[in-house]
Amino acid sequence: MHKLTRTTEPAALIQARVKKIPDWDSFPRSGKKAVRDELLLMQNFRCAYCERKLHDVSSEDENKWDGHIEHFRRKDQHFHPELTFAWENLFYSCLTKATCGKHKDDYVYSKEQYALLIDPCKENPEDFLSFDDRGKISIRTGLSEENKKRAEFTIKAFHLDDPVLTQEREKHLKKHEWVKAYPVEFINNYLKSISDEPFVTNIFHYFGRRVVS
Fold first, then answer.
1. What total number of domains does the chain contain?
2. Domain limits at 130?
């Protein structure tokens, strides 16, 4: 999880608000596709939270990716229905039930809790989270009590410390271990060349760097 730069809002979302489309289910498939495609580009085809790589699983009948459009703050009637078509409230998440968007929706139970979550487009998660060379994500040291609480809640809400996810990150880090034997300039150029890799934040921190969005 690292800082993302919010791109230009898809016209389909603006039209949805102008036409006062009542809910997400009534949003045309073409509009959802436009939103999905822009989110995938914004996130470099990675899950916004765990950074797993997302894949095109289209068939002859359907254009599809192994993920879903994720409302950062839930659009349900008792949460934030006013943010249903708000561009700043949308990300693209993987489909893993044990982590990320699906886990968050089962974990967060109040509007107040959403204020604790780190929004990767509005804040830099690297200011709150620590990434080690074994694939673990934890609370960064030296935080204020409030920011420590937010880091802890974000990790738990998206289950970023899930053991299976941690093992995936560690396994991927080992693929890049050989680069450590090379000079700093080579490492810097290498990191630039793999900017679209899964778990890129852990990779960068593995080499003592931070991701620059």
1. 1
2. 11-206
Whether residue 89 contacts residue 81, with contact meaning beta carbons closer than 8 Å, is answered with no
Residue 169 lies in a domain: yes
137 token code pair: 């994500």
34 occurs within a structural domain: yes
Q: Quick check: is 162 in a domain?
A: yes
pLDDT tens, position by position, 70-97: 999 999 888 999 999 999 999 999 999 9
Q: How confident is the model at residue 32 (pLDDT cuts 50, 70, 90)?
A: very high
CA neighbours closer than 13 Å in the CB half-sphere of residue 118: 29
Q: Which two tokens stand for residue 74?
A: 């839930």
Which residues are 137's β-sheet partners? 131
Residue 54 inside a domain? The answer is yes
Q: Supply the pLDDT for residue 81.
A: 93
pLDDT score at 135? 93
Residue type, position 150, single letter: R
> CB-based contacts of 34: which residues, under 8 Å, 6+ apart?
10, 11, 12
With b meaning 16 or more CB within 10 Å and e meaning fewer, what string describes 109-142? eeeeebebbbbbbeebbbebbebebebbbebbee
